[in-house]
C-alpha cells in the first residue's frame, strides 16, 4: 500500500529565465528609492486627499472616473497603517512621519514593474520571436516616462497594467481556441480578460478604449467562427454565450461591485455630499442625516417644509423669501410688481421654511389625523416667517423676461389679485394616487392660473443684482413642455406644524424635529445617482502651466515638472525616452506604409509575403497599432485640460509595435545574409542609443542624484521643455 514511497517524489517545472529576469529588473527599476522624495509629488496632492477620506470613511465624488483606482491607492495606505491625517494642500510639502510613503506608492510601482513581463508575453502570444519579445520588454523597462509615472501615488501605471493584462489574457484565450476550447485554461483566460477590462475601466474611463478594442476583436473572431462549417449551431451558441458572460456580464457586475464597496466604505457625510440629492445625503451618517432623522415621511396639509432644487449645480439651493421687495424698475427700465422677493438661496436659513396650506381652510397646522397631500392636489405655499403666499402672475421676471416673476403676494389694493394656487405633480410617482413624501418625492409645482412651472432659473443662469443679495432667480416657466431638473424640487426638512399663532410658529420653525422615521436608499438608487454625477459633474477647466494638446505628445514637445527640491538641483520631470518615442513614431509610420503597399499589391494578386506572415502582420497591427489609435485619437474630441500622462497608455502600445516592425523587416525585407547582418548591427546601435537616453535622463526620472546648473542646461534638448533651470 505504501509502495509509492519507495521512489522519490519528483516535481519538474519549466522556468522561463527571460520572464523571471525581466520581472526582477522591472521590480528593481520601479521600487528602487521608492520613498524618495519624501514629499508630495504632482498629482499626489490630488489623490492623497481621496486616500485620507477613505481612511476616515468620508464620502466624496471624483468626476475624473470610477472609484476602483482610488480604492487601490487607499489599500496601500491601509496596509501601511495610515490614519488619513495629513493636509494635502501643496505640491512639494514634506510628508509627516505618520504618512507611510513606501506603502502608498507600492501598488502603482508593482503595477508598473509587472508591465515589463506582460509586454514580453504579449509579443510571444502574438507569435513573434523571443528576441522580439525581449526587445519589447526592455523598451518598456527603459521608458523614462513609465518609470516616473509608476513610482508615485498615481493611477496611470495601474491602468496600463490592467490594459496589458486584458490584452495578454485575450491572446492566450484566442490561442487556446482551436485545440482547447472550453477547457479549464480556456475559461480562465477568457474570464480574466473580462475581469482585467472591468478593472481597467474601474481605474479610469480611458480603460474603455482598450475594452472596446478587445470587444471588437472578439466580435471579428466570432464572425470568422460563424463561417467555420466544422462548428455546429449549438457549439456556436455556446461560444457566443461564453463570450457574452465573460466579456460583458461579468465586467458589468464587477464594475457595480466597485461602487458597492466604495459606498460601503464611505458612509460618513463630508464636503462633497452637498452636490447629491437630499435622499442620498440623508443616507450618510452625520450631515443632513442628523437634521432629517425623525422627520415625518408623508407631507400633509399644515406641514412645515424646506424645498431644495433637485438640479443641485453649480450649487445647491432652497426656495427662499425675505421681506425685501422687487425694485419698482430694473436697471434696463422694465417695471416689476414690487412684490416680496422669492429666490433660491444656497445656504440653510430660517427663511427657507414654507407651510403647505389647504386652499379651502384657514388653519396652518396639521390636523389629527394628518391629511396627506397627493399627486394632483392643489395647495398654497405660505412663507413661514412672513406668512405671505407664493404667487406668480403675468409680469416679466427680473433676469428672464420671457418667464414670469415669482413673488410672495402683497396686497397693494390695486388691480393685481393674488394668484397663489399650485398643483403638486410628483415626477417620480408610481401611480397617480402617490402621496407626496419627504426627500423621496421629486415634485413640480404647476401654477393653476397660468400653467407656469416653478423653476430655479438662477441655478443655470446668473444671480440677482445687489438688490437681490446675489441670490439665484426663481421664475414661472410658461413653456414647460420639456423636463429639466431646475423645475423639480424635493422636501428636505419637514415637520408637522402645531402652532397657529405666528410668534409660536417662528419658535417652532427654529426647533429640530422629533418624530422618528427611516429613509434608506437602495444600492442601485445610490449607484445610479453617483454614476450620473461622475459623468455629468465637470470642474471648470482652467489653463494649467503644464497642460498640452494631443499633437504635442507625438513629438514630445511638452513635459511636466513633477517635483523640485527646495534648495538643490534635484528634480523630477515626466519625460519620455526620446529615442524610444521617435522610434515608435517611425515604426507606426512604416507599419502603415507597408500595410498599404501590401494591400495594393494583394489587390493585384501579388503576394510579397507568405499568408501566415500576412496574418501575423495584421493581427499584431490590430492589437499594437489599434491599441495606440483607440487610446490616442479620442483626445482630439475631448474638451478638457490634457496632460502628457494621458498619452502613456497609447505610447505603450506604440512601443510594442517597434519589435513587430523590426522583426518583419529582418525576416522579409532583408533578403541577403549581408543585409541581415547590417540590420542586426543597426538594431544594436539603435538600442544602445535607447539605453544612453535612459541613463542620461534617469536623474530627472528618479530625482537623484541632484544635478548642477550646467548639467540641467544640457538636459534641455528642446526649447519647449518647461523649467529645467531654477531661477536663482
Could you explain how this protein is built, in words?
- The chain is built from 21 helices and 15 strands.
- The N and C termini lie far apart (84 Å).
- With 728 residues, the protein is α+β, with helices and mostly antiparallel strands.
- Strands 2, 3, 6, 7, 10, 11 and 12 form a 7-stranded antiparallel β-sheet that branches. It has a 6-stranded antiparallel β-sheet with strand order 9-8-5-4-1-13, with no helix packed on it. Strands 14-15 form a two-stranded antiparallel ribbon.
- The protein is elongated, with a radius of gyration of 33 Å.
- Mean pLDDT is 88; it is low at 512-519.
- α7 packs antiparallel against α9 (184-203).
- Helices cover 45% and strands 11% of the residues.
- It has 2 domains: 28-262 and 546-715, no CATH class; 294-514, Trefoil (Acidic Fibroblast Growth Factor, subunit A).
Features:
728 residues, alpha+beta, Trefoil (Acidic Fibroblast Growth Factor, subunit A), 2 domains, 7-stranded antiparallel sheet, 6-stranded antiparallel sheet, 21 helices, 45% helix, elongated
Amino acid at each position: 500500500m505504501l509502495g509509492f514511497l519507495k521512489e522519490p517524489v519528483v516535481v519538474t517545472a519549466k522556468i522561463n529565465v527571460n520572464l523571471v529576469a525581466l520581472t526582477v529588473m522591472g521590480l528593481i527599476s520601479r521600487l528602487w528609492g521608492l520613498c524618495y522624495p519624501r514629499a508630495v509629488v504632482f498629482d499626489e496632492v490630488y489623490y492623497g486627499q481621496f486616500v485620507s477620506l477613505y481612511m476616515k470613511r468620508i464620502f466624496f465624488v471624483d468626476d475624473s472616473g470610477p472609484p476602483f483606482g482610488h480604492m487601490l491607492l487607499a489599500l496601500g495606505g491601509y496596509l501601511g497603517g495610515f490614519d488619513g491625517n495629513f493636509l494635502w494642500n501643496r505640491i512639494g510639502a514634506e510628508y509627516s512621519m505618520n504618512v507611510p510613503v513606501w506603502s502608498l506608492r507600492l501598488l502603482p510601482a508593482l503595477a508598473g514593474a509587472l508591465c515589463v513581463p506582460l509586454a514580453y508575453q504579449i509579443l510571444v502570444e502574438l507569435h513573434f520571436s523571443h528576441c522580439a519579445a525581449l526587445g519589447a520588454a526592455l523598451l518598456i523597462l527603459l521608458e523614462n516616462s513609465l518609470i516616473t509615472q509608476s513610482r508615485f501615488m498615481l493611477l496611470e501605471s495601474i491602468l496600463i497594467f490592467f490594459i496589458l493584462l486584458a490584452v495578454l489574457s485575450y491572446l492566450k484565450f484566442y490561442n487556446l481556441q482551436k485545440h482547447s476550447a472550453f477547457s479549464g485554461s480556456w475559461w480562465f483566460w477568457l474570464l480574466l480578460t473580462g475581469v482585467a477590462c472591468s478593472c481597467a475601466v474601474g481605474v479610469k474611463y480611458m480603460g474603455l478604449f482598450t475594452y472596446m478594442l478587445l470587444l471588437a476583436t472578439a466580435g471579428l473572431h466570432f464572425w470568422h467562427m460563424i463561417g467555420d462549417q466544422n462548428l455546429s449551431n449549438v457549439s456556436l451558441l455556446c461560444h457566443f454565450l461564453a463570450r457574452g458572460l465573460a466579456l460583458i456580464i461579468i465586467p458589468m457586475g464587477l464594475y457595480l461591485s466597485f461602487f458597492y464597496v466604495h459606498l460601503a466604505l464611505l458612509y460618513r457625510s463630508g464636503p462633497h455630499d452637498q452636490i447629491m440629492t437630499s435622499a442620498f445625503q440623508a443616507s450618510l451618517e452625520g450631515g443632513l442625516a442628523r437634521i432629517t432623522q425623525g422627520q415625518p415621511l408623508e407631507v400633509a396639509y399644515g406641514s412645515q417644509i424646506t424645498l431644495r432644487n433637485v438640479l443641485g449645480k453649480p450649487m445647491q439651493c432652497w426656495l427662499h423669501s425675505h421681506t425685501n421687495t422687487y425694485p419698482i424698475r430694473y436697471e434696463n427700465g422694465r417695471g416689476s410688481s414690487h412684490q416680496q422677493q422669492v429666490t433660491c438661496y444656497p445656504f440653510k436659513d430660517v427663511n427657507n421654511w414654507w407651510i403647505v396650506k389647504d386652499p379651502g381652510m384657514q388653519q396652518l397646522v396639521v390636523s389629527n389625523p394628518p391629511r396627506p397631500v397627493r399627486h394632483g392636489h392643489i395647495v398654497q405655499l405660505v412663507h413661514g416667517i412672513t406668512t405671505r403666499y407664493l404667487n406668480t402672475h403675468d409680469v416679466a421676471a427680473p433676469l428672464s423676461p420671457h418667464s414670469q416673476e415669482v413673488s410672495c403676494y402683497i396686497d397693494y389694493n390695486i388691480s393685481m389679485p393674488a394668484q397663489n394656487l399650485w398643483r403638486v405633480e410628483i415626477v417620480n410617482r408610481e401611480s397617480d394616487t402617490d402621496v407626496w413624501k419627504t426627500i423621496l418625492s421629486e415634485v413640480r409645482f404647476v401654477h393653476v392660473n397660468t400653467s407656469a412651472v416653478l423653476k430655479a432659473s438662477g441655478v443655470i443662469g446668473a444671480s440677482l443684482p445687489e438688490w437681490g443679495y446675489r441670490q439665484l432667480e426663481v421664475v414661472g416657466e410658461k413653456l414647460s413642455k420639456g423636463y429639466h431638473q431646475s423645475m423639480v424640487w424635493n422636501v428636505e426638512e419637514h415637520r408637522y406644524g402645531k402652532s397657529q399663532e405666528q410668534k409660536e410658529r417662528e419658535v417652532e420653525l427654529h426647533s429640530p424635529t422629533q418624530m422618528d422615521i427611516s429613509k434608506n436608499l437602495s444600492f442601485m438608487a445610490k449607484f445610479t445617482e453617483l454614476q450620473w454625477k461622475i459623468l455629468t459633474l465637470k470642474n471648470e477647466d482652467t489653463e494649467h502651466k503644464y497642460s498640452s494638446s494631443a499633437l504635442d505628445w507625438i513629438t514630445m514637445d511638452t513635459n511636466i515638472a513633477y517635483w523640485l527640491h527646495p534648495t538643490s538641483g534635484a528634480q523630477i520631470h515626466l519625460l519620455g525616452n526620446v529615442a524610444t518615442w521617435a522610434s515608435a513614431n517611425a515604426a507606426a509610420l512604416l507599419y502603415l506604409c507597408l500595410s498599404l503597399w501590401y494591400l495594393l499589391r494583394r489587390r493585384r494578386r501579388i503576394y510579397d509575403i507568405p499568408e501566415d506572415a500576412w496574418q501575423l502582420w495584421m493581427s499584431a497591427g490590430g492589437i499594437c497599432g489599434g491599441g495606440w489609435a483607440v487610446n490616442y485619437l479620442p483626445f482630439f474630441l475631448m474638451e478638457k485640460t490634457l496632460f502628457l500622462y494621458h498619452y502613456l497608455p497609447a505610447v505603450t502600445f506604440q512601443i510594442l509595435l517597434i519589435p513587430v516592425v523590426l522583426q518583419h523587416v529582418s525576416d522579409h525585407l532583408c533578403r541577403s545574409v549581408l543585409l541581415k547582418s547590417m540590420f542586426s548591427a543597426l538594431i544594436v546601435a539603435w538600442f544602445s542609443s535607447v539605453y544612453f537616453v535612459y541613463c542620461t535622463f534617469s536623474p530627472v526620472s528618479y530625482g537623484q542624484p541632484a544635478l548642477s546648473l550646467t548639467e540641467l542646461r544640457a538636459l534641455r534638448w528642446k526649447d519647449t521643455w518647461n523649467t529645467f533651470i531654477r531661477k536663482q
